[in-house]
Amino acid sequence: MKNTALHPNDGKLALAHIAVGYIALFLGAIAGLLQAFVRSGTLELPAGIGYYQLLTAHGVLLALVFTTFFIIGFLYASMSRTTGDLTPFAKKSAWIGFWLMTIGTAITTVMILLNKATVLYTFYAPLKASPWFYIGLTLVVVGSWVSGAGMFSQYAVWKKKNEGKPSPLLSFMAVATMILWIIATLGVAVTVLFQFIPWSFGLVDKINVLLSRTLFWYFGHPLVYFWLLPAYMCWYVIIPKIIGGKIFSDSLARLAFVLFVLFSIPVGFHHQILESGITPFWKFLQIVLTFMVIVPSLMTAFALFATFEISGREKGASGLFGWVKKLPWTDVRFFAPFMGMLVFIPGGAGGIINASNQMNQVVHNTLWVTGHFHLTVATTVALTFFGISYWLVPHLTGRTLTPRLNKLGIIQTVFWCIGMFLMSGAMHTVGLFGAPRRTAYTTYGDHPQALEWMSYQTIMAVGGAILFVAILMILYIVINLAVAAPKGTEEFPVGEVHEDAEKTPLLLENWKIWIGLSVVLIVIAYTVPVIDIIENAPSSPGFKFW
Amino acid sequence: MHLHRLEKVWLLIGIGTLVMFLTIVGISAFAQGHHPPSDLTTLDPQKVDTTEPFNQPGLKKIGDNEYELVIVSQAFAFMPNDIKIPEGAKVHIIVTSKDVVHGLEIVGTNVNMMVTPGHVNSLTHTFHKPGSYLIICNEYCGTGHQMMSTKIEVTKA
Amino acid sequence: MAKEFISDKKEQEIAQKKEYSLFGTFLSVLMLALFLILSWFGVYYLFIQRL
């Protein structure tokens, strides 16, 4: 496969997305740092800025904006790298999508800063924000759809030219990720377009709260897989090349992605386990489906360790764990995503606990949950995205990752892990004691149970401060790679399949079957309870309590 | 599709573990009645004050050391305030919201439920140990969310 | 691996076996499973304690 730079136009497109992503990361991180200090009682916010306003900004900018922009940039770069220069249609779609998403982000952010949308990034009704907040979010989602259309057409054009051949693995995965995203965002689009926008404009008085929550979580869980799958792309395809090995199995990697498309959507009720109006049967059914979506991650764990072990053995490693020493620990392109993988073990363990039906009563809406997704999205996914940036940004700007920046990246990763160990560790522990998430500093009138939490909240602030230093480091590195690092050619690493691996069955690429099955599962899991909710759940007027 | 022998064993162990987890929580929920709170009762969220039993929030004795505790939540308080019950009391908690979504959590217990306007939610808990239990709202409900709390005093029998 | 130089089928099998010794991988994922099980039962124990 060619290893020249991407076509400059494609490169510019990917860079624009990544740039907006990192700007959002910076703004969101400032909000995060301030929150950590407020929560520990060490800081009072000046000038009428509210804790919950910051929390809204933090969630929207990091969970929605940083991830979506970075992902679309990375997916387009991957498609251009593996299926050739983008077609005019793909390029046009991508740019239209980019501007829609950017304008949407700007509108939403302004509404949050004006304190007209302090509803947190989950915007639960009947808290009612300015309609422009919802319109901004709609533009982000619609923009991502237009981008998705560009990717699908690029993929279709390649398929037509290469009939009978399996598509390049990275492009297959990019397409699977976008299919998942589009099916998932239909839910949030329906609730925002048909419920929130008419209601916030005052066209209707009331909103069906339970329906809006159900549609939100229909989207909310696959959302986390939309973050995770690009990280898996890096682990399955990029990392083998960086460590000098081969992809363990092309077909099993594709199978894992297909399983995600099937099982990551009909599972939203596991975010609503403690909610009225949904019967225990339907909750449990979706919990069983939730457990199915763990299986592709179990497959992934095996495939990754196997990639490491086989490549280590081919380099002469012996003994059970000799291959560990053969891994390129001083290469940040490996080290950062690897730490992400390692953190996914406690992250996944916590996720299984959260989804375990009544066990959710122990942890629901406590800081445990905040700790959980700071491991999964804010460490596993974030460190992998940083790991991608170390080579993707210089590849796109025609520069190189210097040994100095590489070393700084390693230090950044270590800082991130230490900061997160302190912050997330304290959150998990104090969450089990009952400390609530999404709550400003309070001692509840010096109640002894709440006073026990205080030292943990201080540890959280210390961890948060270390994380902020790490954020400044990654921004320094990324800006350097974009504008200052020495000119040269940085490799876009794409792994090759092991020669002993079997041929990829074309069935895996039959999207009609997989999308069809996905729809069937969604219909089974949601039809009865949603009809019940539409018929029985009362509607409520809106409130603005901020 | 070809799977390495050890990968087959791994998937069997992994899936077996997941099935074990599901079986344990499934039996505990469906056979022993430890369902997560899933009340199906609804009411008009704008008429909470005139709807039974929420027109009279408070503690009501319904049996031998058994109580019904009716709670109305609204930004940013729970009604009633400061509840006293004897040690070992079995309490059926029934709650709804007069405005936005709240959460009801009794710190250090399994009492944790979403309180959605228009819906009733309920859980039963037995207070085995005496002491002061903090009841807090654990779902963001507005700028005063962190003040929304009350207490249950469990007195020595 | 230079597969084409191995003519004898038996030899090829031995070579493949050697290549696919994945016991390190297997042990690693078993440790992962152990971690999942221990943390799950830890929280399950808390749930039972708080009943």
TrEMBL record, chain A:
It is found in: Membrane. GO terms for molecular function: cytochrome-c oxidase activity; heme binding. Its main location: membrane. GO terms for biological process: aerobic respiration. Coiled coil: none annotated. It comes from the Bacteria. InterPro entries: Ba3-like_Oxidase_I (IPR033943), Cyt_c_oxase-like_su1_dom (IPR023616), Cyt_c_oxase-like_su1_sf (IPR036927), Cyt_C_Oxase_1 (IPR000883), Cyt_c_Oxase_su1_BS (IPR023615). It is a multi-pass membrane protein. GO terms for cellular component: membrane. Gene3D superfamilies: Cytochrome c oxidase-like, subunit I domain. Keywords: Electron transport, Heme, Iron, Membrane, Metal-binding, Respiratory chain, Transmembrane, Transmembrane helix, Transport. Belongs to the heme-copper respiratory oxidase family. PANTHER family: CYTOCHROME C OXIDASE SUBUNIT 1 (PTHR10422), CYTOCHROME C OXIDASE SUBUNIT I (PTHR10422:SF40). This is Cytochrome C.
From TrEMBL, chain B:
InterPro entries: Ba3_CcO_II_C (IPR034214), CcO_II-like_C (IPR002429), Copper_CuA (IPR001505), Cupredoxin (IPR008972), NosZ/Cyto_c_oxidase_sub2 (IPR051403). Coiled coil: none annotated. One of its GO terms (cellular component) is membrane. Residues 49-157 form the Cytochrome oxidase subunit II copper A binding domain. It catalyses: 4 Fe(II)-[cytochrome c] + O2 + 8 H(+)(in) = 4 Fe(III)-[cytochrome c] + 2 H2O + 4 H(+)(out). It holds the Pfam family COX2. Transmembrane segments: none annotated. It is found in: Cell envelope. Keywords: Copper, Metal-binding. CDD domains: ba3_CcO_II_C (cd13913). GO terms for molecular function: copper ion binding; cytochrome-c oxidase activity. PROSITE patterns: COX2 (PS00078), COX2_CUA (PS50857). Its main location: other. Subunits I and II form the functional core of the enzyme complex. Electrons originating in cytochrome c are transferred via heme a and Cu(A) to the binuclear center formed by heme a3 and Cu(B). This is Cytochrome aa3 subunit 2. The lineage of its organism: Bacteria, Bacillati, Bacillota, Bacilli, Bacillales.
